[in-house]
Structures are given as C-alpha cells and as structure tokens.
C-alpha cells in the first residue's frame, strides 16, 4: 500500500466521541494521507450514539461511497466482546439507507455490505465545463453540444449510470447547489497534489498559427517594368534606327516607320524591297515582344502563389511576418517564436484600434481545431482569409479533471481505458477528423470552380486605361504639332518672317 500509494481497505476508528462524529479529524486524515482510492472499502467503527446523518454527510462530501459504519456498544460486564447490533450505509443519490443485522453476519460474503451505489444514480446531473475543441467538444445547431467527449459521457453517465450531463460554456457559471466546483472539467485544469483527480487522454493537442492569406496581385509594378534592361536597349535601338532610316533614306522611307507599325499610318501600295524587309523585321520583333508581354500578364493572372508565404514555424521566423496575440503574456511563447512576437501592450492597443482587422496584417495563435475551422469558412465577415501553418507551436496534454471529492474517478478512468482499448475512441476520432477534411476539400473545390475573380482582371483594366491615356496624350500632341506647323508656315504653306 505504501509503495504504490493505493489502498483497497481503510479502517477508521471513531469511537470515544459519543454522538459527535469527528469530521474535522477524519477530514485531516483523509486530506493528508491520500493513499486510498474512492472505490476502497471503508470500515468505520463508531459509538452507538453517533449521529448517522452527520456521518453519512461527511462521506458524501468526500465522495466515498463504499463504506460501512459499525456501531459498537460497550461490552457487558461478564463479556469482553463488544456488541454489534446493526450496520448501516447510505446512498447519496437516492437518500436510501441500507441496514444490516450484525447478528446474521456471514463471513464468507461481505459484498452485500457494499452495494454498488453507482449502478443507478437516478438522474444525477453531472455538471461539466470544457473549452470547445474539435473534435472533443463543439457546438452544433440549436446550441447543442456534441463531440467525442460528449459521446463518452453520454454512454457512461446517461446510458450506463442513468444520469444526465450538462455542459456549460463559461467557467463563471456557478455550480449547482451543494457543490463547490464542476464535476468534470476539460482542457482547463488546476494543479492538485493528488493524482487521482485527472484522466489524461492518449493523444496530444496544441496551438497553431494563423497568418493572413492575401489574394491581391501586384500587377502595376510588373506592367510598368515588363522587360529587362537588354530588351529596353533593343526597343531604344529600334526607335533610333527607324528615325535614322527616315532621315538618311527619305526615298525608301517616305513615312515614319514607327507610325506605320504602331498606328497603321497610310503608305503607298508598292514599297521598295529594302523598305519591306525592314518593315517586316520590325513588325516581327514587335509581335514577339507583345506576345511575351501578354504571356507575362496571363501568368500573373493564373499564378496561385501570389507571394512568398511561410508554411512552417521556421519559415515564419525567417519571414517578415509578426505575431500579435492580444490579451496573452507573450513571454510564455518567446522561446518558440524568437523575435516575432509583438508585445502584449502593443497587441492590445492594435486590437482596440483595428479590431479583428488586425489579423489581416499580423499572424495570431489559437487552438488548432479553431484554426482549421477558421480556414474552412474562406473569407470571413471582414473580407480577408487566413491559412494555418503546418506544424504546431505548443503541444500539450488533454486532461479530464474531476472534482476534488468526486466519486466518479475510478468509474470514468476504467470506462475510458476500455473505451480506448476497444478501438471505438480512435475510430470516432479519425472519423470526425476525416469529416472535417472532407468539408475543407469540398469548400476548396467550390472555390476552384471559379476561373477568374474580379481582381484577376485588374491588369486588363489598367492596360485599357493606360492605353487610353497614352492615345489621348499622343492625339493632343499631334494636334499641337499640326497647329504649330500651320502657325509657323502660314495659310499658304510658306514660313512667316520672324519678328525682330
């Protein structure tokens, strides 16, 4: 017993206190020598005048169900053996008393002194609180709580023990009358010296990082600088060469060659052979340059990776992204994300200023199930969307913590172990995870059905508007040039004398 700190039989001698049960002394003994299980058999020796209600209330408060009180009368003058008349115990769920005649004691069978009081808890309401985490606890339509943990509690408490389960969403919800804490807590545990309050799940959980996912494409920068320096040199040489050919060989190139290529300026039908060779070569060059320009625009429109985004924690550390987590002490995560965390004061100030729009520029951290659910909805109500990094930042154990004096620990621990060993737990866990993946894929396929979005055609509108502007500038410049020629040459086409 002392080696494993686990006792299956506890003997308590409370005689000599008369009608007053020594609850203070007994509580001290149980709190300081917690080497027993709640399922251990307690034998309590008390005086005959001991208050039964006070004794049963004490064990009920401490969650001990398997106890048998033995009232002893002082021995008769001619006998050294004390007198045992009636043994008793009580069921706190039904307020039922179990009385046993000590004179009819059968040493071969003592199980009837310890009836299974958890076989039927008669509608006892198990008050539970848990942080919502998929697939263990999540909310479905109609404010109904579902999940793998709810299935476990329903099978155990409702179907097996004939009780009820009520899951609350806030830890500020006051417990039911007569209780100081929740019967069961998930994912929100406090440290206790004794280990027989916690049931740890077999799998681990953790936190993931959400980063903004921008779909805007930077077309204007590429449109204004579409070619390299060498191509710009070729274009400059073409411009200078066409102008020189017009001045050096006016008979072969009567009109501006660039005007004929770009603006389809009129020219005579029969052109000399050198003129046709040069015109054809320039047209072919312009054609390939325009095709390369259009191909680059199409690649910008169809490229699925709009910018270099981090996909892992290591890439996040090497990127320019910052992580802002309002209301959280970032010092706890400084080792996991060195140099990437915005201070708590700065994050709180940004959140008060921008609200949820803060996460359109900064990454944040939340439970992995919340992160994946956030990505399934696509664009949120604020018009931006986020993606999840592949690896978790912080891993932690998922724990079920029962009340300090809960009588359900042994039953829940044994049932969960059998539930897990049978394969039902992992089967349901994998099923819910696959269901979430299918929903994410279906949403992704619906988004992929759209070939182009409105922002994909921004480059086309930019080209059209820029073309109109250039055409307008060229047209106005040509009008000014013609007006200046007429002004200088006069109505007859002769140059006017300049004023002295």
From TrEMBL:
InterPro entries: Insect_Ionotropic_Sensory_Rcpt (IPR052192). The chain crosses the membrane at residues 229-253, 273-293, 458-484. One of its GO terms (cellular component) is plasma membrane. Signal peptide: none annotated. It is a multi-pass membrane protein. Keywords: Cell membrane, Glycoprotein, Membrane, Receptor, Transmembrane, Transmembrane helix. It is found in: Cell membrane. This is Ionotropic glutamate receptor C-terminal domain-containing protein. It comes from Anopheles merus (Mosquito).
């Amino acid at each position: 017993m002392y080696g494993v700190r686990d006792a299956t039989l506890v003997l308590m001698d409370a005689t000599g206190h008369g009608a007053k049960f020594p609850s203070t002394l007994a509580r001290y003994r149980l709190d300081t020598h917690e080497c027993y299980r709640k399922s251990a058999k307690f034998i309590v020796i008390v005086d005959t005048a001991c208050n039964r209600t006070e004794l049963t209330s004490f064990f009920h408060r401490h969650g001990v169900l398997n106890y048998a009180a033995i009232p002893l009368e002082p021995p008769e003058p001619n006998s050294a053996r004390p007198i045992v008349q009636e043994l008793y115990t009580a069921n706190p769920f039904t307020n039922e008393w179990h009385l046993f005649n000590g004179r009819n004691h059968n040493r071969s069978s003592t199980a009837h002194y310890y009836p299974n009081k958890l076989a039927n808890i008669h509608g006892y309401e198990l008050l539970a609180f848990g942080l919502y985490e998929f697939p263990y606890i999540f909310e479905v339509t109609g404010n109904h709580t579902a999940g793998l943990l709810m299935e476990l509690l329903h099978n155990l408490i409702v179907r097996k023990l004939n009780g009820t389960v009520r899951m609350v969403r806030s830890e500020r919800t006051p417990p039911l009358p007569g209780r100081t804490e929740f019967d069961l807590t998930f994912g929100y545990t406090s440290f206790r010296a004794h280990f027989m309050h916690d049931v740890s799940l077999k799998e681990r959980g953790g936190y993931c990082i959400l980063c903004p996912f921008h779909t805007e494409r930077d077309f204007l920068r590429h449109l204004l600088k579409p070619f390299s320096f060498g191509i710009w040199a070729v274009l400059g040489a073409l411009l200078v060469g066409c102008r020189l050919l017009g001045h050096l060989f006016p008979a072969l190139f009567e009109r501006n060659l660039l005007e004929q290529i770009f603006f389809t300026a009129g020219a005579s039908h029969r052109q000399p052979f050198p003129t046709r060779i040069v015109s054809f070569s320039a047209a072919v060059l312009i054609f390939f340059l325009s095709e390369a320009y259009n191909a680059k625009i199409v690649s910008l429109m169809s490229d699925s990776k709009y910018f270099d985004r981090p996909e892992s924690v290591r890439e996040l550390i090497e990127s320019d992204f910052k992580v802002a987590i309002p209301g959280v002490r970032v010092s706890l995560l400084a080792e996991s994300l060195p140099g990437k965390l915005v201070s708590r004061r700065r994050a709180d100030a940004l959140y008060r200023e921008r609200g949820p729009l803060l996460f359109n520029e900064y990454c944040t951290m939340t439970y992995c199930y919340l992160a994946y659910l956030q990505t399934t909805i696509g664009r949120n109500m604020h018009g931006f969307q986020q993606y999840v990094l592949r690896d978790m930042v912080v891993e932690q154990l998922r724990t079920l913590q029962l009340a300090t004096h809960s009588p359900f620990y042994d039953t829940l621990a044994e049932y969960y172990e059998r539930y897990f060993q049978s394969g039902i737990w992992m089967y349901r866990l994998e099923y819910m995870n696959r269901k979430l993946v299918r929903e994410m894929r279906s949403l992704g396929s619906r988004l992929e059905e759209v070939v182009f979005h409105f922002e994909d055609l921004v480059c086309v509108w930019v080209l059209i508007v820029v073309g109109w502007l250039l055409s307008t500038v060229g047209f106005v410049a040509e009008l000014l040039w013609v007006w200046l020629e007429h002004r200088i040459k006069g109505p007859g086409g002769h140059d006017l004398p300049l004023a002295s």
